[in-house]
Design brief:
- The chain is an alpha+beta fold.
- The chain has three domains: 131 residues, OB fold (Dihydrolipoamide Acetyltransferase, E2P) (Beta Barrel), CATH 2.40.50.140; 267 residues, Bira Bifunctional Protein, Domain 2 (BirA Bifunctional Protein, domain 2); 57 residues.
- Helices cover 36% and strands 25% of the residues.
- Strands 6-10-11-20-19-18-15-14 form an eight-stranded mixed beta sheet, sandwiched between helices. It has a five-stranded mixed β-barrel with strand order 1-2-3-5-4.
- A hairpin with a 4-residue loop joins β8 and β9.
- 33% of the residues are buried.
Length: 511
């Protein structure tokens, strides 16, 4: 007895084309041909193999499989294009070669159906490398209609929600994510070649530390314990340095319960690395070398075009202190401020509003954000951040108000953060306490990570650490204007929820 797939009350309303496709499926089922029961097809070659090695494969029999993206039926012969994981290639299907029954079945196949093709490699009279089919197998029936080929999927919101459609019809999107994978592989290769050990640290954590980022909260039922998704991997990686691992890194997912914009998503990928017996000067050199390596691996050049501007990634990069950068940009002189009140007055005089609780360090940061960051298009290291905004960085011996910290900026955006790590447990506890108190004063909860302080009390060697966002790096190297373009499945509000809230807002307006 043939299977039957009737609609249910939950089945969305179908278009005319979708109804026709379901009718075709039912015909197949009635004839005893259920494409969803096929479990395998032996693929010998992909499209790129055939196109790149035509001279060796001409006249040879190959098997390939993929999604049919176009079809031209011309009586007893037809042409189609098959898209597989490597690209696309033309197939030539003739009734006399595959038989009347198979040819009639092929004519009923739709754009979007997944086919298996076995045939000989040849070149058509127009010069196009193709596969002359000897058999065609329907491997999966597509019940949805793909967007029209020449215009692709243009609706940006729909592209992000249905990435599986986006990568079918927009090959440049698929190329972006292939390049993303290569970039991450290059990061790993660079660090592995320098003796770094890749590790995994906990995503679920029991302490809400006093950092500025807001965590996602969850609950562990078995332990009856509130837990938090990590906002960084730093403190566990530094525990490993204490434990005797001299070079460690992690490529990990990070979660921050904050806003979303062109460069921020609540869930993102970061790389953090730590090296014992090093400082932030050595890590500036490491960043330059690593970015050169990644660019050459992913692009074959260190000149990167981003939104119409060429970015020169080759070392050396510009280096300047935060205080000097602010002074050059707006004239405010951090070194001349004698008090927090004087710093606040300098900000207000320049039109930058700051809170009364801001000290000199936060005021300097506010001016930097306003006047400097957006101007840093070419790769630039900004060094020597105030201790007030650097709770985990080591103080500069010659100026304890500043830290051995740098961030680097490209295309006007912060791309990474590094410092000589604070390894003084007494100073670290004091900074944690101040940070937690500031969060509590804002109405948030925060606590000191006592276990991390305990680790530092055992003794951590002088160490350099670096963290950077993979997604922003991929944006740069793929010329992508928003972070959603480089995330396969960016965070989106569910469509039903969006509609419900829109309806509620209209009701409010009516009232």
């Amino acid at each position: 007895m043939a299977a039957n797939y009737p609609t249910t009350p939950q089945t969305p309303e179908l278009t005319e084309q979708e109804i026709i496709r379901r009718q075709k499926l039912q015909v197949l089922l009635d004839e005893g041909h259920n494409p969803y029961l096929i479990t395998r097809f032996d693929v010998t070659h992909h499209s790129r193999d055939i196109l790149e090695h035509f001279d060796e494969l001409e006249g040879q029999t190959v098997s390939l499989a993929g999604r049919m993206m176009s079809k031209r039926v011309m009586g007893k012969a037809s042409f189609a294009h098959i898209l597989d994981g490597a690209g696309d290639i033309q197939i030539y299907v003739r009734r006399d070669d595959i038989g009347q029954e198979s040819y009639m079945a092929f004519k009923q196949d739709d754009i979007g159906d997944i086919l298996g093709i076995t045939g000989k490699v040849f070149r058509t009279q127009t010069g196009e490398i193709s596969v002359h089919a000897e058999s065609v197998t329907l491997l999966c029936k597509s019940l949805k209609v793909l967007p029209e080929k020449f215009h692709g999927l243009q609706d940006t919101d729909l592209r992000y929600r249905q990435r599986y459609v986006d990568t079918i019809v927009n090959p440049e999107v698929r190329d972006t994510f292939v390049k993303r994978s290569r970039i991450i592989s290059a990061i790993r290769e660079f660090l592995d070649n320098r003796g770094y050990l890749e590790v995994d640290t906990p995503v679920l954590q029991t302490v809400e530390i006093g950092a500025s980022a807001k965590p996602f909260r969850t609950h562990h039922n078995a332990l009856d314990l509130d837990m938090f998704l990590r906002i960084e991997t730093e403190l566990y990686l530094k525990r490993l340095i204490v434990g005797g691992f001299e070079r460690v890194y992690e490529v990990g997912r990070i979660f921050r319960n904050e806003g979303m914009d062109a460069t921020h998503n609540p869930e993102f990928t970061s790389v953090e690395m730590y090296e014992a017996f090093s400082n932030y000067h050595q890590y500036m050199e490491l960043v330059e070398q690593m970015y050169e390596f990644i660019c050459m691996k992913a692009l074959g050049t260190t000149d990167v075009t981003y939104q119409g501007q060429v970015i020169h990634m080759k070392a050396p990069w510009k280096k300047i202190t935060m205080a000097d950068a602010v002074k050059e940009a707006c004239g405010a002189d951090y070194t001349s401020w004698q008090s927090a009140e004087e710093a606040q007055a300098a900000c207000e005089a320049l039109g930058v509003h700051v809170e009364k609780s801001f000290g000199k360090g936060k005021c300097l940061e506010a001016l930097f954000d306003e006047f400097v960051e957006k101007t840093l298009v070419q790769p630039t290291f900004i060094m020597d951040y105030p201790v007030e905004i650097s709770p985990l960085a080591k103080r500069k011996p010659e100026n304890p108000d500043l830290t051995e910290r740098f961030e680097y900026f490209i295309t006007g955006h912060e791309m990474g953060n590094a410092f000589s790590e604070l390894n003084d447990p007494i100073d670290q506890r004091r900074r944690f306490e101040l940070q937690a108190a500031a969060r509590i004063a804002e109405g948030a909860f925060a606590e000191v990570d006592e276990d991390f302080v305990n680790a530092l009390e055992l003794g951590m060697p002088p160490t350099a650490g670096l963290g950077f966002g993979v997604d922003r790096l991929v944006m740069l190297l793929t010329d992508s204007p928003t972070i959603r373009d480089v995330l396969l499945f960016p965070t989106m509000k569910p469509l039903g929820q969006t509609k419900a809230r829109d309806d509620e807002s209209h009701e409010d307006e009516d009232q």
